[in-house]
Amino acid sequence: MANTNTKENPTSLIGASMPRNDVYEKVTGTAVYTDDIQFGGKLLYARVKRSPYPHALIKKIDVSKARALPGVKAVITGADFPNKIGLYLKDKNILAIDRVRFIGEGVAAVAAISNEIAMKALELIDVDYEELEPVFDPEFGASKEAPLIHPDLGSYTWPDFIFPEPGTNIANHFKIKKGDIDKAWGECAYVVERKFKVPHIQHVPIEPHVAVAMQDEKGKITLWASSQSPFAQRALIAETLGISPTDLRVIAPYVGGGFGSKAGVTMEAIPVALATKCKGWPVKLLLTREEEFFTNFVRQGLVSIVKAGCDKNGRLVALRNIMYFDGGGSTEYGVNVTRAAGYSSSGPYDIPNVQTDSICVYTNHPIGGAYRGFGMSELHTGLDQVMDELAEKAGIDKVEFLKMNAVKGGDILDTGMTMHPNGLVQCIENVAKSIDWNEEKKPVHPNKLRGKGIAVAWKAPAMPPNAGSSAWVELAEDGKVTVGLGGQEIGQGTFTVMAQMAAAALGVKYEDVRIAGPVDTQYSPYEWQTVASRLTWSMGNAIRNAALDARKQILDVVAQAWHENAEDLDIVNGIVVSYKSENETSLKNIAIYGIPKENNEGWIGGPIIGRGSFMPTYVTNLDPETGQGPRSVVHYTVGCEGLDIEIDKETGAITVLKAAASFDVGHAINPALVKAQIEGGFVQGLSSAMFEEIRLRKGVMTNPSFMDYRIATSADINFHLETPYVEVPQDDGPWGARGVGEHPMVPTIAALGNAIYNATKIRLQGPPYSAEKIYLAMVDNNVVK
Amino acid sequence: MALKQITLTVNDLVETVDVPQNMTLLQMLREKLSLTGTKNGCTAGECGACTVLMNGEPVNSCMVLAAECDGANVVTVEGLAKDGKLSKVQEAIIKTGGVQCGFCTPGMLISATALLDRNPHPSEAEIRAALVGNLCRCTGYFRIVEAVKEAAKM
After folding, report:
1. Residue A712: which of B120, B104, B119 has the closest Cα?
2. Is 0.85 exceeded by the ipTM?
3. In chain A, which residue's Cα lies nearest the Cα of B99?
4. What Cα–Cα distance (Å) separates residue A658 from each residue in A445, A454, A711?
5. For residue A418, how many C-alpha atoms fall within 13 Å in the half-sphere facing its CB?
6. For residues A326-349, average pLDDT
7. Domains, chain B, ordered by start
8. pTM above the 0.95 mark?
9. Contact A140, A333 (CB under 8 A)
């Protein structure tokens, strides 16, 4: 338990909606993002030559004409950088070598003195391809008949919790076997089985990917990037280039939206590679919005077959879940999405018998990577709609069904791990109340159908078992505090929450804490990545530990100077006080120069700097055949969402009347930021449910613009959303907190699908639940004529 | 590329700039005048991140040629605060918590300012309509719309 046995007095700061510490910069236009940094007249512009084929051999690349073009400073191809790169399964190259595996894959790159010259140079690069049979269907791709996309899979490297099957297109096959599924079906009174398809979608940060790299004459490289992962990028790019990680410095300013797209390594390696060929010149690669849509990470598509059964009382007995993830041409990061969906495949339900196959399949589609929710939205889309149908079949009210089957503290999960205390039942009750679940629902207009839907969700931080955080807390002459951290401010408000935690643990005012930004791997403390909703919990622990360390140093020095016991001292609003002697002194009196001893006999203390780190040490590997093990994850954040909607019988258009989202956040350090995360996540989920799909035709994305790939606008979100959160403390979270960054978009597709069913009695195979799709289904099912 | 000299007012300052004929107003602001508060999200007039006021009207500055701006009066996000005092919309969006990553914020603030200039007491529907060209991926718009309502009351 991390939050006992200290005298810190957090009550006024922990649980307070402090204003964001980055907001003044952001509203005045002075906040610096990567593309805002000025590099002067030597800046070079990078552009990438991309494959027009989904699957082909590269027979020959001729870059001689491009190289000869005046103004071109460097041209590179994949052959210049032969080492593989990847976060989990190392299956990717900086630029393609010998073979291209999706449309848009980089085959060559140019750095030139202007964007126009770089574009012209691309036209001068000749590439001879030999087309190969592509794979676009993950189910077929997993079969023995499918052409191989990575024939050398067996020679790649991967961590021991990923299970590729060389000789096939299966990049990871995660299995769960809990209980006896075959026997269990006989105990079921009701069974539902359905197939679902979830399309690829894009993260759509409003800031496109941008990275600038420069190598100095001695070989040291600096990379400025819009990045969720400066430390992972340092490690992975350095490894690929064969240099030492600390010879690559990554500076990561504010990020204009990430959602997973700026995690791991994607386009950032290209300007670094170019920079090694033109030392002393900064090289910038800024993706166009079109490139942003399909050349970087996308969310993997999913085909899932879900079968679930319950007894006559509605108690869940069995679940069979088969998921084929459409991993794309590389699955270096995506293999762990598949793993996460696998070990979480029961959803937040207590089910004694579970069998799961979660399969990551290479296809000739864009590369699937991390996306807010990390496999959970895709998993829950099918799972929660099958549960909806099962409750109906069993004749049990859906809310009662959810509460009865909700996972509770002490339940044995699908992996064999014991569930921690959690507030899922309370979340379900909150949502039911918010959307007046039990109230008779009549359409407002005779031409409309009305329906309500509800769905639950869970998600654990998906990461290696030992992903770590570290921090320092330093005091300056004025007694004010600077916090060093390596996690990124990507909009979620982590700099604000970390400042609150540091202030609370140390005993200073929130306004007196500054964050040492931008994160710079040369001096910022290590942080694995800004992903997995893990910072409030993991980095928060590191910062709290660092602040407590600084606090201890201060109190020890003052106690010595005052001839008192440190236990009798406290720090309140930046003043050290003694409850015993009633002495007091400001931190600024001791922070740097220490305290003079009596009688001019020297000094005590000196500059104060606290250090802290945190790494979970208890996560275990799981059995490769059964997925069973003592502790599969650090913890789960659970929650529930519901919608009350109308559907226009003449158009199929959905109008949301009211919605609710309730999550168990452990302890809301900053309630306003928690609510803002939940609101934004809900709308991203709703946008994916109603509008979004990367339309792929023979590997070509046919809608790579905001005109054709629509995301929710201000006009779409014309309803009230309630976000009553629940606080069941996390045992190893700072002040009991756990993350909620990704979760709000996890159950949204299923909740809307259930509402559509409730209104129309139609169960659609998958999102987006567009007006057209709903209308045509209503015609097909004689709901309308 | 031939250069054209233009003179315009940007945030109350008169600027004379030599611009290539194909340079956009967005590029000129960011690259010639170092006003990087205005953001580039799509270069296609679709996301609204580059919105500035041009002669009082909100425009996507990526869709306007700098050469057309001779004599124009342009206001960017950097011009909203006067003498260190934030504008009403800036104050309001801080209060309601309508800023997350901040990349859409400059364009949002400009569109909201333009709305309140022409319609000091807009309905919620009018607010939502006025911001429809400014995409935000973080907030779900709730607190941004709230901010405009709040600013209208100030």
Report:
1. B104
2. yes
3. A23
4. 16, 12, 20
5. 5
6. 98
7. 3-79 (3.10.20.30), 88-153 (1.10.150.120)
8. yes
9. no
